[in-house]
Amino acid sequence: MTVDNSEVFDSCAASAYDKDCTFCVEFKHGARHPGSPAGTVLGADREDRLIWQDDELVVVPSIGPMTKGHSMVLTREHYLSFAQLPLPLLERAEKVAKTLCQQLSSLGSPIMFEHGAMSESATGGACTDHAHLHCLPLEDIDIKEQLDERLTPRRIDSLLDLVEQRERGQPYIYYRNQQGESWVYDVTTDLPCQFVRRAISSSLNADSEWDWLVHPRPQLVRATLDAVRWN
User: Fold this and answer.
1) pTM of the complete model
2) Under a CB-based contact definition with an 8 Å cutoff, are residues 216 and 64 in contact?
3) What's the half-sphere exposure (Cβ side, CA atoms, 13 Å) at 155?
4) DSSP letter string over 148-210?
5) Cβ distance 31 to 23 under 8 Å?
6) Which of 1, 86, 127, 211 has its CA 20 to 30 A from that of 193?
């Protein structure tokens, strides 16, 4: 499945705010807003789940974390995927993601992944159409074999190479292993929602607990907020 380039480049011009996007609602109105699920995982002593932020990027713990430390890098504005970011912002996002991985290294060897959407219909397996890159410690588990069973990998050097996906209008999965090696997978067929989370859950012998909405794990979210300190 590919997307016509005119549709891709239309969606690249980020809307500053999408009222139907839970991330947009959270960043504009706060985690306690009824339109954001983040408020359900915060203790009474917290008003947000921010680990780090600036005017363009945000780092927060994932709801339904697969491991302690499971966090995400997100754009403030409403881009569909990191492939659709302007190059200067993509360069900054990569630096932030690398810094986050360094912060997580005390908890284990981090991996990174993204379901890269090109449009609201060509989602690459994403369940939320707002650019978010997962970073999580995952010792001694490599999910690449599971990804390779369904999709064809292509080695890339960095997030910056995702620009090619935008140029081709091709939804994708991005995966970086614990050794810092990166691959991109063209998603040319329908994938189950949260496909990578399912693979991680299977590797952790928690097959039924991949869905963040069903298993939000508030205690693990709060443990991540306590453990991850941005230096």
Assistant:
1) 0.89
2) yes
3) 3
4) HHHS-EEEESSGGGGHHHHHHT--EEEEE-TTS-EEEEE--S---TTHHHHHHHHHTT-TT--
5) no
6) 86
State how far the Cα of 171 lies from the Cα of 122, in Å rounded to an integer: 6
Among 111, 128, 118, CA closest to 199: 111
Assigned token pair, 37: 């699920």
CATH architecture of structural domain 5-227: 2-Layer Sandwich (3.30)
Q: How many CB atoms lie within 10 A of CB 229?
A: 10
CB environment 10-30: b (16+ within 10 A), e (fewer): ebbebeeebeebbbbbbbbee
Q: List pLDDT tens digits, range 211-229.
A: 777 789 999 999 999 999 8
Q: Phi and psi dihedrals of 5, rounded to 5?
A: -60, -35
Is residue 180 a contact partner of residue 109, using CB atoms and an 8 Å limit?
no
